[in-house]
């Protein structure tokens, strides 16, 4: 229940953040998100191969149970986790560049009119997608507390499996093929 409340609070805060931005900043955020998605799509696998020896992953045994994935996925979960970490490193780099650019453009924000509806809708899409991708990454971690949370919270499972683009594109990129859900 606490995880659902935390997700709801995060989504509300992101909507509030975008609710008060001008159209220029909303468009710049959309451009940086698009650039980030392109970079993640092209650089996740090469960076993941380089990070293989640097990122530890908890060992998976034959007795390991994952709430979302079938037992046939146990061999590919560590590699998917490393590719997910590579995706987050790339996204963090794009976010840092975005923050630097927006810092320099901050004086222009007072000139634009606030786009309350557009900003709120854009914030909802960004927050929902961010939470779904983060939950997909967390679902790869082989800790009993995390897996039991996914097993007991249908909303978390639903967000990972049913959010458009997460299972079909993001997880397929991390698994390098179809996602073996249960």
Molecular structure report:
The protein is mainly alpha-helical and 182 residues long. α4 packs across α6. The longest helix has 29 residues. The radius of gyration is 18 Å and the shape is globular.
Helix proportion: 55-70%
Counted by DSSP, the helix tally is 7
Secondary-structure content class: mainly alpha
**Biggest beta sheet attributes:** none
Helix-strand topology string: HHHHHHH
Number of strands: 0
Shape: globular
What does the average pLDDT come to? 86
Strand content: under 5%
Radius of gyration: 18 Å
Distance between the termini: 23 Å
Extract low-pLDDT stretches: none
Topology:
Layout: H1 2-19, H2 23-51, H3 77-105, H4 116-138, H5 144-152, H6 154-162, H7 166-175
Helix pairs in contact: 1-4, 2-3, 3-7, 4-6, 4-7
Overview in brief:
This protein is 70% helix and 0% strand. With 182 residues, the protein is mainly alpha-helical.
Feature tags:
182 residues, 7 helices
């Amino acid at each position: 229940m606490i995880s659902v409340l935390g997700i709801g609070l995060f989504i509300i805060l992101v909507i509030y953040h975008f609710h008060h931005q001008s159209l220029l900043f909303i468009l710049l955020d959309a451009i940086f998100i698009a650039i980030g998605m392109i970079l993640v799509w092209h650089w996740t696998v090469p960076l993941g191969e380089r990070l293989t020896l640097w990122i530890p992953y908890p060992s998976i045994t034959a007795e390991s149970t994952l709430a979302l994935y079938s037992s046939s996925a146990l061999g590919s979960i560590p590699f998917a986790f490393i590719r997910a970490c590579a995706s987050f490193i790339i996204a963090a780099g794009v976010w840092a560049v975005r923050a630097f650019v927006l810092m320099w453009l901050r004086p222009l924000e007072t000139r634009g009119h606030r786009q309350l509806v557009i900003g709120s809708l854009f914030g909802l899409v960004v927050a929902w997608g961010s939470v779904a991708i983060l939950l997909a990454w967390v679902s790869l971690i082989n800790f009993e507390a995390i897996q039991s949370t996914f097993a007991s919270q249908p909303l978390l499972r639903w967000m990972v499996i049913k959010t458009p683009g997460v299972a079909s594109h993001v997880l397929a990129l991390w698994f390098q093929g179809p996602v073996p859900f249960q």
